[in-house]
Design brief:
Blueprint (H helix, E strand, L loop, with lengths): L1 H24 L18 E7 L30 H9 L3 E2 L3 E4 L3 H9 L10 E4 L21 H8 L3 H4 L3 E5 L2 H4 L3 H6 L4 H24 L4 E5 L17 H20 L7 E4 L1 H9 E3 L5 E3 L2 E2 L5 E6 L5 E3 L7 H19 L8 H13 L11
Parallel strand pairs: 1-2, 1-5, 5-6, 6-7, 11-12
Antiparallel strand pairs: 3-4, 8-9, 10-11
């Protein structure tokens, strides 16, 4: 019996040692010299923490190259705001090189338990500094297999001098909030809504603190969330003045908690996503009925608050932002970075944006190529 126990213990030790060796040697796809990139040394590094609203569409590691699941059927010319920004201001804002980098969440977590770098999780093809991934919620900022902020900080630690002048965009919370619309419409003061608001504010605040604990000068832009009642898929719901008002009261409370995190700290600023959307497409009327306008980007490009992969729709068929939405959002982000942090980034003028978008609207679908930065 004792001999059997010793054999079993020995076998277990061998398995654990082999597992530790595999975890230690498991390649995550990080380039040998991630600091090398063909951009100006004066470019401001830009990192992202968030969800599918910031996960690049041309990710062929997460989604197959011929898939329309991410970016729609015109995926090869439908870009996420990060991809627009890299193409239009990639010499001034550095999102890092385009890499297929990361590990499964359990592997990243096990490596961290062993005192090794976790890297990025899950594995995806994206810009080096983009830690946003589809499905992420506020809990994924600091904890669990897919925690983003601590792993971004570990990457920033490799180049602390650069990140002293860098920016981190935190855009998350819709996956915590969007599924609660019925409750928002009926009782904007419901305990569940207060709990979701407090939780997200706490996790975002913890992410901010973790970044500034290691990189005190890094600027951080906190992005509020929009109104899911403005999604065309929801137009036939909550069509009353009371429900519309209640949803807005609840949403204002959530966004106020995020905005409050930036109060009194020049390193922090807030981006009002709801106001941005309403400025471009409007909102429902006072009685809760859809009352949206179109965005005019030239004689051939009129974009409505509708759903479809054709770029004349604001939203893709999967209800993520379409090409024009993301292009306009990138334009607004540059303006906000200039305004909030006095960054000397060249503004994206309306005419420049139109020249960028129009060929993509007119072009046939083409094979996806690695975008670079």
């Amino acid at each position: 019996m004792k001999r059997s126990v010793r054999l079993a213990a020995g076998a277990l030790a061998l398995v654990l040692a082999a597992g530790a060796l595999v975890l230690g040697l498991w390649s995550d796809g990080m380039p040998h010299d991630p600091s090398f990139r063909p951009v100006s040394p004066s470019a401001f590094p830009l990192a992202i923490l968030g969800d599918s609203n910031s996960h690049s569409y041309q990710d062929n590691a997460w989604f197959p190259a011929d898939s329309s699941e991410r970016g729609g059927r015109l995926r090869s010319r439908t870009f996420q705001w990060t991809e627009v920004l890299a193409r239009m201001r990639g010499q001034q804002l550095d999102l890092g090189p385009w890499v297929r980098w990361g590990r499964p969440g359990v592997v990243a977590l096990a490596r961290e338990w062993m005192g090794l770098p976790g890297g990025r999780a899950p594995r995806k093809e994206d810009y080096l500094y983009n830690f946003a991934n589809s499905g992420a919620a506020c809990k994924n900022l600091m904890g669990g297999r897919f925690r983003q902020a601590p792993r971004l900080v570990a990457l920033m630690d490799r180049e602390p001098e650069r990140w002293a002048r860098g920016v981190v965009v935190i855009r998350i919370g819709l996956n915590n909030w969007g599924g609660l619309l019925d409750l928002q419409a009926s009782d904007p003061a419901a305990p569940e809504l207060r709990e979701a608001t407090a939780f997200c504010a706490r996790e975002i605040g913890a992410a901010v603190a973790s970044i500034h604990a290691r990189h005190r000068s890094t600027r951080i832009l906190l992005v509020g969330i929009g109104n899911e009642a403005d999604d065309p898929a929801n137009f036939d719901r909550w069509q009353s003045a009371t429900e519309t008002r209640n949803i807005r009261i609840a949403l204002d409370g959530f966004n106020a908690a995020i905005r409050h995190l930036a109060d009194g700290d020049a390193r922090l600023a807030y981006f009002d996503d709801l106001a941005w959307f309403q400025d471009h497409w409007g909102s429902r009327d006072a009685e809760g009925k859809p009352d949206y306008k179109a965005v005019e980007m030239g004689p051939e490009l009129r974009v409505t608050n509708t759903i479809g992969d054709d770029p004349h729709n604001a939203l893709l068929a999967d209800r993520h932002a379409g090409l024009v939405w993301n292009a306009l959002w990138a334009q607004a982000l540059v303006a906000r970075l200039r305004e909030a942090f006095d960054l000397p980034i060249t503004p994206i003028a309306d005419e420049e944006l139109r020249r960028f978008v129009e060929p993509l609207v007119a072009a046939p679908a083409a094979p996806v190529k690695a975008p670079g930065s």
